[in-house]
Predict the structure.
Amino acid sequence: MSKLAVGIIGYGYWGPNLVRNFSASPLTEVVAIYDANPARLEPLRRTHGHLKLVNSIEEFLALRLQAVAIATPVATHAALAERCLEAGLHVVVEKPLAATTVEAQKLVELAARKGRVLMVDHTYLFSNAVRRIKELVDSGELGDLYYVDSVRINLGLFRHDVNVVWDLAPHDLSIVDHVLGGQARSISAWGCAHAQAGIEDTAYVNLDYGDHLLANFHVNWLSPVKVRQMIFAGARKSLIFNELNTTEPIKVYDHGIELGQASEEERHKLLISYRSGDIWSPHIEPGEPLQAMVTHFVECIRGKKTPLSDGQLGLRLVRMLEAATRSIRAQGGRVVLGGGTGSPRAMRPEQFAPTRAGRAAG
Amino acid sequence: MSKLAVGIIGYGYWGPNLVRNFSASPLTEVVAIYDANPARLEPLRRTHGHLKLVNSIEEFLALRLQAVAIATPVATHAALAERCLEAGLHVVVEKPLAATTVEAQKLVELAARKGRVLMVDHTYLFSNAVRRIKELVDSGELGDLYYVDSVRINLGLFRHDVNVVWDLAPHDLSIVDHVLGGQARSISAWGCAHAQAGIEDTAYVNLDYGDHLLANFHVNWLSPVKVRQMIFAGARKSLIFNELNTTEPIKVYDHGIELGQASEEERHKLLISYRSGDIWSPHIEPGEPLQAMVTHFVECIRGKKTPLSDGQLGLRLVRMLEAATRSIRAQGGRVVLGGGTGSPRAMRPEQFAPTRAGRAAG
Amino acid sequence: MSKLAVGIIGYGYWGPNLVRNFSASPLTEVVAIYDANPARLEPLRRTHGHLKLVNSIEEFLALRLQAVAIATPVATHAALAERCLEAGLHVVVEKPLAATTVEAQKLVELAARKGRVLMVDHTYLFSNAVRRIKELVDSGELGDLYYVDSVRINLGLFRHDVNVVWDLAPHDLSIVDHVLGGQARSISAWGCAHAQAGIEDTAYVNLDYGDHLLANFHVNWLSPVKVRQMIFAGARKSLIFNELNTTEPIKVYDHGIELGQASEEERHKLLISYRSGDIWSPHIEPGEPLQAMVTHFVECIRGKKTPLSDGQLGLRLVRMLEAATRSIRAQGGRVVLGGGTGSPRAMRPEQFAPTRAGRAAG
Amino acid sequence: MSKLAVGIIGYGYWGPNLVRNFSASPLTEVVAIYDANPARLEPLRRTHGHLKLVNSIEEFLALRLQAVAIATPVATHAALAERCLEAGLHVVVEKPLAATTVEAQKLVELAARKGRVLMVDHTYLFSNAVRRIKELVDSGELGDLYYVDSVRINLGLFRHDVNVVWDLAPHDLSIVDHVLGGQARSISAWGCAHAQAGIEDTAYVNLDYGDHLLANFHVNWLSPVKVRQMIFAGARKSLIFNELNTTEPIKVYDHGIELGQASEEERHKLLISYRSGDIWSPHIEPGEPLQAMVTHFVECIRGKKTPLSDGQLGLRLVRMLEAATRSIRAQGGRVVLGGGTGSPRAMRPEQFAPTRAGRAAG
């Protein structure tokens, strides 16, 4: 089967990774790279002399490629993806899909109308670690899920175009959306801008999934240490995904007791011990997630399948990012996430559903 | 100078630590122990035969001791402390001071009227690590403080009388109150009860100190791993207090850059590196904090000094614990913390002060 | 059954732990403590007023106790244990049993003649962790054992009476003797004295068990960090015992491959990965090893059983400690360990058995 | 200045790294790659179509390049380097320089005669971490050096051509040779072959530098965990280089006490604490060591300077590798390292210099 002719738009931070992975794939051939800034393409002339390096979208589209990967600033995603879809290309866009729910919604509809694949590069979904986490959760190994807690902090890239929620939370949101399957009922967030006026660099995001399940993310560009850790806590076992732990990225903790039904003696033992059951760290096969993403993109195009991270997922995430930022600006007020096509609505106090804690207490 | 005659009320989880430390102190002599449950005192008859072991408060007060340490369930603190203060004893109470703001307020007033020391055993304030942290923050070493983030989670003691906020957050609240000095403007919290109906075992608490300073605590009884870590992030340096890291409980991170004013090149370096400046871990002298608490208690009695963790601090903390639980029940709504004697009030949306983020953006 | 009347000799560093554990045991009663230095006993008068505190061995023996625990400097072990055995007491001696093979041998013979229990307090053998390690090795879970590697280093107590091998290696030697079961054929050691003339503070000890099995210990008082880690490497799985890792003291590593028979592809994967199989950390029940030692000592006395760490084991270890020091002084020369009663002999070059490596190569 | 025309010989495990770094350098141009196995070059035809890919040394030399980097199996180093030097090329050889002292000696002499640069790719010497370590040691920051202890173990590549000492110890030897400056007096080693007959996979190597300074390396292909850690212990401070600790590769530990002169009270504190002074982790600039090696190679060629890792250093290391293997086969016997051109000689017992421990004791 002939290789898919692919172009890359945007050669900044992420672009080189896309070029490397689309080049390495036996399924695709990188034909052209387009960046609005000619200086960015300059070093490529020496190392990738055989590629077409172009400076305008018209020139790029004139090449009549089959597919495109877009890795430009968020604000430009929608317009570029729209041009490419209109031109009949299959499109994979860097996360997040677009800068607003409205834009994202339009892209989803356009892709459907044109019969083209629209995918978002939520790379984590293609990692062997997240695949294993989903298997473990789906199999019931952990029991009922209680909460997901994620800490994604570091001394970071201070972006000027988006705040830390738009920069880092898409990772957590995509993983949680994928693993939990369901849809959050409401979102609430706290945040603060320290280093640059108006651009939050420190934030906490809370998702209410109903039924005693909540997810919480701490995202932060002002942390002295780099942390990438997610806890998936269940009634029987809990799982920790620490991607910076190269030897044990996933650990499964058997609680050894039935939480909430511990005897007096078990409670006392917990006080003096650090754990109460076995720990197991399954082996995760090595493999570059971005390569798996490339393979999946081609398979969806060839097999007319719906991508794991399709436009709908991309849209759901943009809606949550919008809601989180709105909540921060409203001092942490809770925002209801409708399933519909509109933007999220802020809750008025009288709309508060009985809280889970409240229900439990009542 | 003769030793202070001390009694201990309550011989459950914490009582033995109090007996051990008041016994070891050259300044105090433990004379009597009172527990309403005679079975709890039984093992003491063999190992501490010389102590008076009593089963009623009347018997206890009849011993005419000089001071008392109370380590009973929270709900009983106020009544017991009141009896002891009325009888003219100096009192140190296990944290938190009382179960309600109203109770705590009454104790503060009573102690003032009787001219007795009322202190709360917020043990952390007497640790060499927290002392060092306060010195570092006060000296300006960190620059302007941006945020405090605390994670205090473990597979824990599932208490039946109070939720996880009342159990664990007093530690964070006392440290932050002590180190930051000022008073939070408002509090907001999310939480959920999984293991026992109506008793939250997972919670996130957020304090707004105004002026771009926020504090956030994750407290949790359902975590597979034990974590005790606080980040104090500043404009120049940041500090991490990890009390489970026995060799390096405090680490000071020099950012190496002016946050928010990083050049393009510095930003790029941050992307590929884990840090940008030196790390320094000051030596912390060993020493049991509870022993330092005992010494401080006696010094305040002898020297008529105000304790570091006096009734006023205890009262402020009870007010914040009340506010946090109220916010959880109101789905995370923000609760204003007045400086006055009343309980905290829930904010109505129209009362929202411009957010820090909002101001920054405006 | 009445409690065993026990006395403690030596109240320095370890003595208080013995007093605490023999007191806490329901099987024993601490009656008397003897220390040649009266100042050491002074603080006991206040806290343990009911105990007999004596200053001479005659006074001590006159009390006609049933058993004794000796925790004095190594040089005094033999004489004190001999007096106690002669007086008909059962004896447990702090490790190592004696200062020389000759002394140790005499104690073993005396105990046999008097029909008394002679035990050495090799505390590790009574820890739940070491019990679990022995079970895992004995069950064949690891496959054939390849090597044991121990690192036991810290910035330490600079003892004046013995070198670091005599101070720290008894722990490793007792664990290896217990877990491996067999007897080493020869020993070799390197070491150096830096801080005090003539007292090695840094040493490496190597045991040859024949059949391709070796054990190596790094013991050190001059390390900036504290490490307590043992690797038990097997053909199928390997085990790491890190007692400073409070949550995961034992980890079992499945190699995922047959070592030495890896395919070209497996080899390549190993190059880029940190591991190749699952890791499992069994839960270890909490429990103080010294308490288990006390219980075992009483059970051996009552049931006329041979202790896990009997005089024979103590003798074997003293022989190895002697051999190690001799090897250090001989620049690392290999010393043959006979099974007999004599001291170890240095090998002459022509006595070198074909090395395991040599045999394999030949 | 025009770029240096470079060829690469050997395109196995390390070759691609050399191609990447010589290509990325602004000082060099990769012109040709030679590998005796044409299959290895096949994938290069697609990605590096502009390079000359050749299958014989004659073809390679006919290109009349200026310099060559050789990354082939150790046994072939000498013959290939000799051909290249004879042809007038400057040569950098993968470590170790050659398979025998005799071969290495000949290469050093040939390079001198031909006036060409002969360098060994001991990559660590070009890392910013090792540069910093040398600065810290040279400045006297650590005080007199007591010992170097290195652990370099992992579940590894089971090489068929050389044992684990030849595979891993060159790293330790090159760092120690570079940082300590002096020359070891003797070497001793223990080792064992488990997975493949005659090829040691587990070894301990001990170097005696005289004057109470020793270096010890544990190298191992059969470890369940990957460790890359070196301790440089000094009289005043000690340093740990842990290259797997991405955030703190170098830590400097202030002992806080004068080792060997600690008071009784200080000794007691050490017993209960994990450390006694501050810890400082200097920031290490990021930067790929192999790129720095390429730059250094070119600078030595252009400026007629002696490389940091010149042939003499390469020769010293081969001599030590030979001596270590000889010692393993002789059951750990000590081998004297002469400074001359010959191979190391085994010590006869009567030649034993008084040991450092012995001297100290005498």
Residues 311-329 of chain A form the longest helix (19 residues). The first strand of chain A starts at residue 4 and ends at 9. The mean pLDDT of chain A is 89.
